[in-house]
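Appendix C reproduces, verbatim, an entry submitted by the partner laboratory led by Prof. M.T., so that reviewers can inspect both the input and the predicted structure.
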Amino acid sequence: MNRNALIITCSPVGAEVMKTDNPAVPYTPAEIAAEAIAAVKAGASIVHLHAREDDGSPSQDPARFAEAIRLIRRDVDVIIQISTGGAVSATPDERLQPVRDLAPAPEMASLTLGTVNFGADVFWNPPDLIETFAREFLERGIKPELEIFESGMMTTAQRLAKKGLIASPLHFDFVLGVPGALSGTPENLMHLYAQLPAGSTWTVAGIGAAELKLGTLAIAMGGHVRVGFEDNVFYRKGELATSNAQLVSRIARIAAELDRPIATPDEARALLSMPQRSLT
């Protein structure tokens, strides 16, 4: 295993952006799978997966997740990371539904470590809910990606670890640039980086214009990078991205210039201390 290898996560679609924002945004399981497969072939080893209804509205329907996963796995090996954030309007049970109902259980899922203002909305994650999610992950052997929107969430991670609800080594995703949370600046990335527990791994997801600059900085710092239409639908200012794969390919090219080889899915599993298991 090359410990210098770069893990690229692709989030092909979130819960907010629509085809009116960028016509290439995928909605159906087939569209999401096609975007994910192309992103994997461009260098992504993790797919952060949301689901949509055919009209583009956010969905937590396990059947739609399962169909996207089936189509993805038919063509490529990749770590599937289920979003338990869903949409801000989703109930806790709806957010956990894919984790509880998918068989086999997903290898990874996101775990947001606090309540945060999210544009005009509030993303509600009180302490008891966070612990409920963490226990569900433990019971099913799911590796959590700890989603960090504010610096106090790093302290929450330490509390969960002390309670035995999350197991070291921890993996963090610094989500920077959401309106209402920490802005997407190098200073904020460095502030969070300085609080990492020993042995942890980390990824940065810069929102909007922060995606490229923070991704480049993370490559240089030895971290990992998330890109995709959930976070940013532009290739550069005023120019819409044509696909998720286009965003992944750019990060892969920058990584090559900085002598960071791209991690395969199996290498990513090893770097994240994830058990190897049958996914069928």
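The radius of gyration is 17 Å. Additional entries are available on request from the coordinating office.
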